[in-house]
């Protein structure tokens, strides 16, 4: 049976920028090996699979290595975008996703989509063996650890932009990924970041919603305000609105569809 699949660029309104995600809206649950195979075939940072369940959708995310991840922002944004674009949800409707990280919601805010995600704050920690060497960083401002990732703050944005990490060595760090961040050097953002996750098959993620669940509380504490904008300084780049609300973070982004097709196997 043919299955429609959509590719969406998230955290951007410009095609071929932001972070691409695959989206499969299924009529019912499919077997896990098939979803893993499709994610490998798509070869995107994540492919989202969702099907109706209760008053919303069951949502799962897989990487090109076939790994299932517990939280993914850009593919959730892409999934919500497709549901609204295809008329499966009305523009005024809040969409509820049941995931490995609990219930996540999506709402339309004019041309932006707002996601309600769990905060994943980072606590200051000792850098694990090999982390700073893999990044090529001698003197970080601070190293911290969240539920999923290590966070490394650097002295300035130029240092973040100029990183040329040893990706193979980073893949040996015991964490989902590594966030590197600094105060922003662009007017439209409060901080910048990059995100590396070779351990789950993503050398550098273009724009990462879930990392902003860590970055939002980190920079809110440093800057003394809860409404922030982050710029992820990858080659594709993208803006993420992030508002800390207690143990939740509201993530805002835009999305654009770039490809529609059918899987025939």
What can you see in these coordinates?
The chain has about 260 residues and is α+β, with helices and mostly antiparallel strands. It has helices at about 30-40, 75-85, 130-135, 155-160, 165-170, 210-225, and strands at about 5-10, 20-25, 45-55, 55-60, 70, 95-100, 100-110, 110-120, 125, 140-145, 150-155, 175-185, 190-195, 200-205, 225-230, 240-245, 250-255, 255-265. The protein has two domains: about 5-110 and about 250-265, Diaminopimelate Epimerase, Chain A, domain 1 (Roll), CATH 3.10.310.10; about 125-245, Diaminopimelate Epimerase, Chain A, domain 1, CATH 3.10.310. It has six helices and 18 strands. It has an 18-stranded mixed β-sheet that branches. Helix 1 links the parallel strand 2 and strand 3 (about 45-55).
Short structural summary:
By secondary structure, this protein is of the alpha+beta class. The protein is built from 6 helices and 18 strands.
Rg measurement, Å: 18 Å
Output the CATH homologous superfamily of the largest domain. Answer: Diaminopimelate Epimerase, Chain A, domain 1
Shape: globular
Q: Compute the number of helices.
A: 6
Main sheet makeup = 18 strands, mixed
Mean pLDDT: 96
Written as H for each helix and E for each strand, in order along the chain, the element string is EEHEEEHEEEEHEEHHEEEHEEEE
CATH fold call of the largest domain:
Diaminopimelate Epimerase, Chain A, domain 1
CATH hierarchy, class of the largest domain = Alpha Beta
Q: Helical residue percent?
A: 10-25%
How many discrete structural domains?
A: 2
Say how many strands there are.
18
Assigned CATH architecture of the largest domain: Roll
Can you tell me the residue ranges where pLDDT is under 50 for at least 5 consecutive residues? none
């Amino acid at each position: 049976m043919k299955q429609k699949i959509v590719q969406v660029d998230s955290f951007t309104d410009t095609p071929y920028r932001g972070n691409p995600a695959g989206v499969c809206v299924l009529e019912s649950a499919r077997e896990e090996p098939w979803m893993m195979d499709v994610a490998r075939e798509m070869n995107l940072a994540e492919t989202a699979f969702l099907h109706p369940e209760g008053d919303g959708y069951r949502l799962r995310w897989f990487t090109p290595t076939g790994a299932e991840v517990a939280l993914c922002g850009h593919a959730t944004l892409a999934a919500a975008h497709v549901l609204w674009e295809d008329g499966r949800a009305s523009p005024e409707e809040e969409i509820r996703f049941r995931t490995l990280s609990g219930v996540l919601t999506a709402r339309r805010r004019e041309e932006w989509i707002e996601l309600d995600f769990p905060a994943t704050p980072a606590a200051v920690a000792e850098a694990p063996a090999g982390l700073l060497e893999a990044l090529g960083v001698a003197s970080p401002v601070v190293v911290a650890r969240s539920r999923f990732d290590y966070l490394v703050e650097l002295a300035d944005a130029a240092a973040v932009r100029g990183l040329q990490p040893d990706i193979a060595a980073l893949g040996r760090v015991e964490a989902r990924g590594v966030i590197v961040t600094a105060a922003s050097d662009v007017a439209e953002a409060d901080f910048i970041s990059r995100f590396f996750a070779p351990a789950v098959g993503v050398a550098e993620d273009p724009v990462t919603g879930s990392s902003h669940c860590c970055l939002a509380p980190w920079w809110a504490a440093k800057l003394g305000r809860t409404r922030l904008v982050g710029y992820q300084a990858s080659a594709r780049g993208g803006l993420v609105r992030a508002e800390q609300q207690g143990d939740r973070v509201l993530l805002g982004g835009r999305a654009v569809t770039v490809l529609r097709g059918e899987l025939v196997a």
